[in-house]
Design goal:
The structure holds 2 protein chains of 2 kinds. Helix content of chain A is about 65%, strand content about 5%. Chain A contains 13 helices and 6 strands. In chain A, the strands form 3 sheets. Chain A has a two-stranded antiparallel ribbon. Chain A has a two-stranded antiparallel ribbon with strand order 3-4. The radius of gyration of chain A is 24 Å and the shape is globular. The relative contact order of chain A is 0.14. Chain B has a two-stranded antiparallel ribbon with strand order 1-2. In chain B, about 60% of the residues are buried. Classes of the chains: A mainly alpha, B mainly alpha. Chains A and B meet through helix 2, helix 3, strand 2 and helix 13 of A and helix 3, helix 4, helix 5 and helix 12 of B.
């Protein structure tokens, strides 16, 4: 294999691996903020234990995220030296900003979050939690800005074979950036909600930590449903941008070979590459309708560029449609959960709790498929229209060197994944610290997750919400 | 050198790069060095926990200085970032693997002592490899590398592992180990561990002295006389002053009998940090304005002028650095003040005394 192909595989593998942890850590950040916020209002030991539990899971995930992030910071220089020389003065500016403004903040205050609960005031601690979570999202902001510049380069010109920054703000806020940021952050929150819901389902199935689990699962499902239902809209916003800025990527996503109107939208299927059309379930005129609200909307096809400038259609098509399928599944799962809860059958529906438990990885499957669509759909360009991936690789690094490091990455990352899984499993099995004996039988008080008037909730008066099965307040 | 004259902006970015390198070497230096000494310093679970506790809240933040350095170099001097990282591909990847293993050994554990052998090995090797290789890279960048007109390093393994570069690698290892021993002495309570850290500190201090003396002599032949430029610049004198005073302070003060209680641990840690600042400073002043000297043809050297990104990018980076570096120092101060004093174990904050890190 050539060193370009091996370097591509290595980059795809290491960045894909890194992004297994990023959504969980940002999503768990949101979860821990909600938990810490609750503790700040109630001051109850049980709430502190809950918050500590999420902090532990966050920290374990963050640790692997950081470890695999080190690779990414240097991967451009090691494997993509010609890319680095071409784009450094533009692409790396937000990367440097990420380190200076976001990552540093996150790492510093994570130490506080992990080790200083007893050393600082509750207010300072709460602020530190917000800082860590804000910084994680701020990191995503800069990294996605850099990625968006590769997709839709602006604020720069090419002079003497180098991209040169002409306008900082234009290079930062490129056309594809706002939608990509919203879509990606939304996906990380969905991942956090599914994690929280899945862990709660695990406890409900085993009748452990039930008070904690009931409290958590309800808001996790509400949040998970609302956010995953929002994702198609954010995705559509992004797709409209792709249609105008990267029409060839859209053509590959829907396998549109000939430019024209009345283009159909595929639900699922395969691309018949020789026949140049998708085969499967399609909605006639669907693509034209959804992109232009009219069947006469003209969609740019792959035939508008020479074959050498087209991405691999089948992979992009499949990744894109599978992402949508998984995304819809996420909405359905959370909707079913809310209906069961509303009808007070959630705890009895063990099949559903089991489903929820095994759904934890699903949002990550969707984000990975989404990134495959975005990045493979951009090929053969590494910087859209300006630099080809084949011209971006390091000239001095041989294919055998890349093969060696790729093999080590695969082994090392597999071991790392195993350790992470074991640590997470241990934290989850142990659960939040039990601060008081939970009643073995009988109902739990139902506590609104975000109630600001929470101090009164700890009083026995809430116990009047007694009923045989747990469900929504009447 | 490059045809265009050097601008103030390019010089400023060179200085910022050197500053970040010094900050990184001082801060990550102590936790890397502590990792190098960890298997010998800590003899039981309690001592291991105390040593990890001495760095637990800060090592991750310390490593971010490296990330920032990488990002800044990439943006301000893209050909340097590209040429150095691709030119040192396999050894640099080894450093990356080491840092990953180290991060996992420190950050991902189940809070109990099981598998401590594996984790000790991970922490040790993950610290040893970067401590040596960072010095090896520095040695190559002082000595100069073979560069192609495109800015790719074309020299082989023999050039990479030249005796001079290996010597600088060992000096870097000793320097970090010394910094780690000084930190361990500063952060542990009086007792066996503290005494061991202090004894180690004495040994590493003399090792640093011996290796620096050797490197100074060797640099006379190997570094194309560039290091003598330190005699012609105020900052060069400052760097040499820091190095010599730091060395003298550590070696003399730590032998004084009245330090049996460890009241001077802080002073000695500052002295060790001064040694590091001095050494990196001498390198920066000696090489200025060259970032990557070409051995084969000095016109191919990557300088702060020939390798710089364009003015708008440098302005953006300067603004970010002027706002951001004080912020970074402020967070560092907050966190270090919060965790000041000698540590007992590596956890206990959020988990009622059980290990967290």
């Amino acid at each position: 294999m050539t060193s370009v192909l091996l370097s591509r595989i290595q980059f795809a593998f290491t960045i894909g691996y890194h992004f297994l942890y990023v959504p969980f850590s940002i999503g768990l950040g949101l979860v821990l903020i909600l938990a810490e916020r609750r503790y700040r209002h109630t001051g109850a030991d049980a709430d502190r234990a809950a918050s500590d539990f999420w902090i532990k899971l966050f920290a374990a995930t963050f640790a692997v995220g950081v470890a695999s992030g080190i690779t990414m910071e240097f991967a451009f220089g090691t494997n993509w030296a010609n890319y680095s020389r071409f784009v450094g003065g533009v692409f790396a500016v937000p990367l440097a900003a990420e380190g200076i403004f976001a990552f540093f903040l996150e790492s510093s205050f994570l130490g506080v979050l992990l080790l200083a609960r007893k050393k600082v005031s509750r207010r300072f601690y709460y602020a530190a939690a917000w800082i860590v979570v804000f910084a994680a999202m701020f990191s995503a902001f800069w990294i996605l800005a850099a990625n968006s510049w590769m997709q839709t380069p602006r604020g720069s010109t090419v002079v003497g074979g180098r991209a040169v920054l002409t306008n900082f703000w234009a290079a930062l806020f490129t056309p594809s950036f706002p939608a990509r940021l919203a879509h990606t952050l939304g996906a990380t929150f969905v991942a956090g909600a599914f994690f929280a819901a899945g862990v709660s389902a695990y406890y409900l199935l085993r009748k452990r930590h039930t008070a904690f689990a009931k409290r958590t699962i309800r808001w996790a499902m509400v949040l998970g449903f609302l956010l995953s239902a929002l994702m198609p809209l954010l995705g559509h916003w992004q797709a409209l941008g792709i249609a105008s800025n990267q029409p060839i990527k859209l053509a590959a996503m829907e396998a549109v070979y000939q430019t024209g109107s009345h283009k159909s939208l595929s639900v699922f299927g395969v691309v018949d590459e020789s026949g140049q059309k998708p085969i499967g379930l399609t909605i006639p005129d669907g693509l034209s309708l959804i992109m232009g609200l009219s069947p006469n909307k003209v969609i740019t096809g792959l035939d508008s560029v020479p074959p050498a400038d087209r991405p691999p259609v089948q992979v992009v098509f499949q990744a894109w449609h599978l992402m949508i399928a998984v995304g819809i599944l996420l909405v359905v799962i959370m909707l079913v959960g809310l209906i069961l809860w509303w009808r007070r059958r959630l705890e009895r529906s063990r099949w559903f709790l089991r489903l929820l438990q095994y759904s934890i990885p699903l949002p990550i499957v969707a984000t990975t498929l989404g990134w495959m669509t975005a990045e493979i759909g951009r090929q053969p360009w590494v910087v859209e229209g300006q630099l080809r991936t084949t011209d971006a690789v390091s000239s001095t690094v041989s294919s055998s060197q890349v093969a060696t490091t790729l093999a080590i990455f695969i082994v090392l990352y597999a071991v790392l994944f195993y350790f992470w899984l074991m640590v997470v499993r241990r934290i989850v099995r142990k659960g939040p610290d039990e601060v008081e004996v939970e009643p073995k039988v009988g109902p739990e008080p139902i506590v609104p997750p975000l109630a600001v008037t929470a101090p009164s909730l700890a009083t026995p008066s809430m116990e009047l919400v007694r009923r045989d099965e747990w469900g929504p307040p009447q | 050198m490059g045809a265009a004259p050097m601008t103030g902006l390019q010089a400023a970015l060179f200085v910022i790069t050197a500053f970040l390198l010094i900050a990184y070497a001082i801060l990550d230096g102590f936790d890397l060095g502590l990792g190098v000494l960890y298997p010998w310093l800590a003899r039981n679970d309690h001592e291991r926990s105390a040593l990890r506790g001495a760095i637990a809240p800060v090592w991750d933040g310390n490593e971010v200085w490296l990330i920032v350095l990488g990002g800044l170099l990439f943006a301000a001097f893209p050909p340097v970032y590209a040429g150095v990282l691709s030119g040192f591909y396999l050894p640099f990847m080894l450093v990356v693997f080491a840092l990953i293993i180290r991060a996992v050994s420190l950050g991902l554990h189940n809070g109990e002592s099981e598998r401590h052998g594996l984790r000790t090995a991970g922490f040790f090797l993950g610290s040893l490899v970067p401590s040596f290789f960072f010095g090896l890279f520095a040695g190559n960048l002082i000595r100069g590398v073979t560069l192609s007109p495109a800015g790719d390093r074309t020299g082989g393994l023999g050039e990479l592992f030249s005796p001079f570069a290996v010597l600088i690698g060992l000096a870097s290892l000793a320097m970090f180990a010394n910094q780690g021993a000084c930190w361990a002495a500063l952060k542990t309570h009086r007792g066996d561990l503290h005494a061991r850290a202090r004894r180690t500190r004495d040994v590493t201090g003399w090792l640093v002295l011996a290796l620096i003396a050797g490197a100074t002599v060797a640099a006379h032949w190997e570094a194309r006389g560039s290091m003598s430029r330190n005699f012609h610049h105020g900052l060069g004198w400052l760097a040499m002053f820091l190095l010599l005073v730091g060395l003298a302070f550590q070696l003399i003060v730590s032998r004084r009998p009245d330090d049996a209680l460890g009241h001077r641990d802080r002073g000695i840690f500052v002295a060790s940090s001064a040694i590091i600042s001095g050494l990196v400073g001498i390198w920066a002043v000696g090489n200025y304005p060259v970032l990557v000297p070409a051995r084969n043809q000095s016109a191919l050297s990557l300088t702060a002028s020939s390798a710089a990104a364009t003015r708008p990018a440098l302005i953006a980076l300067l603004v970010m650095a002027v706002i951001g570096i004080p912020l970074m120092l402020a967070y560092t101060t907050v966190v270090y003040r919060l965790f000041r004093g000698r540590s007992t174990t590596d956890g206990g904050a959020t988990d009622g005394g059980r290990s967290q890190y």
